[in-house]
Design a protein that fits this description.
Layout: E1 2-3, E2 32-37, E3 45-48, E4 54-57, E5 61-64, H1 70-83, E6 92-98, E7 102-108, E8 114-118, E9 122-123, H2 124-130, E10 141-145, E11 152-156, H3 161-166, E12 170-171, E13 176-179, E14 184-189, E15 195-198, H4 208-214, E16 228-233, E17 236-241, H5 244-249, E18 262-265, H6 277-285, E19 289-291
Parallel strand pairs: 7-13, 14-18, 15-19
Antiparallel strand pairs: 1-19, 2-3, 2-6, 4-5, 7-8, 9-12, 10-11, 10-13, 14-15, 16-17, 16-18
């Protein structure tokens, strides 16, 4: 457990190996292309895409390629070579040698949100590292919105390094990366460390007994047998008795918590403290929040 005011160290070291960009990447203005024609080296050319999306080819003139994948651009060039009767059966390959420098926008729960300039595709962990890593309140479900297509890709930042690296995805120039805030539940009342606890473990889940353990358990003055669960619904808040003592003894099953749930453990009768649901909800709003790594 870490108190949130302590900054989190960088998420993971940058991935060193560069993976070739997949064919889903679209050609854009400013990209440097390498056009090769099989068995015809005199037609090889390096050319940069202009602002209007055209590539100037010495053998075909200006050809519009912006918004196409490299493979689709190669087919267009092949068609042009056939139409001009340069070759009967041309075989063309197009590679993006250099991307136009574009900002990757990283927003949400990172230590340094903002726009970061990249000119090649980079692993998502690289980009998160540029942004200072995740905060202690970050949800591990990262959403990536692809530039040009608007396609949304999900990536889970696992606490397990092998899983994090093995399932990494590439961030392309112009993409947006969104890291939402993790869900929080609250343990209030007569517990040793009352406060809010974020769902930041690898499963992004939290149970009543897990949160009770994170809160340091209860002192002798507490009445865990009379604890209550306050849950927000579309119509307001509901209040239900939950017997934490029986859960601890294994007599009844533990319960899975939801975002914004509040478990309140009453004080002993001797303290004569009575708290309404409204006052408990108000107290949750000012509670300290803890990470649950």
């Amino acid at each position: 457990m870490k108190f949130l005011k302590i900054p989190m160290v960088a998420l993971l070291l940058s991935v060193c190996a560069f993976a070739q960009a997949p064919e889903s990447i679209l050609i854009g203005p400013g990209d440097m292309l390498h056009i090769q024609v099989f068995d015809t080296p005199e037609l090889d050319q390096h050319a940069r895409v202009t602002d209007d999306g055209n590539v100037p080819l010495i053998f075909l003139g200006d050809l519009h390629v912006a918004g196409l994948t490299p493979e689709a651009a190669a087919r267009v060039i092949e068609a042009g070579l056939k139409q001009k009767q340069y070759l009967k059966n041309p075989q063309v390959t197009v590679n993006i040698e250099q991307y136009a420098t574009q900002g990757v926008l990283v927003i949400g729960q990172v230590n340094k949100p903002g726009s970061y300039q990249i000119d090649t595709s980079r692993p998502v962990l690289d980009v998160l590292s540029l942004a200072g890593g995740l905060t202690d309140l970050a949800d591990r479900k990262v959403t990536i919105e692809r530039h040009g297509t608007g396609e949304r890709v999900q990536y889970f930042v696992s606490n397990n390094p092998e899983e994090a690296f093995d399932h990494s995805v590439l961030i392309h120039p112009g993409d947006k990366v969104m890291i939402p805030k993790a869900a929080v539940a609250y343990m209030l009342g007569d517990v040793n460390h009352p406060g809010g606890y974020a769902f930041t473990n690898n499963k992004s889940q939290l149970t009543a007994l897990q949160m009770l353990a994170l809160a340091g358990g209860t002192p002798p003055t507490a009445r865990p047998a009379a604890a209550k669960l306050i849950r927000r619904t579309a119509d307001g808040y509901t209040e239900n008795l939950i017997q934490l003592s029986k859960m601890q003894k294994g007599e009844i099953p533990d319960i899975q918590l939801q975002a914004d749930d509040i478990i309140y453990v009453p004080f002993s009768y001797l303290k004569n403290v009575v708290a309404s649901s409204a006052s408990i909800v108000a107290a949750a709003g000012g509670a300290a929040i803890y990470a649950t790594h």
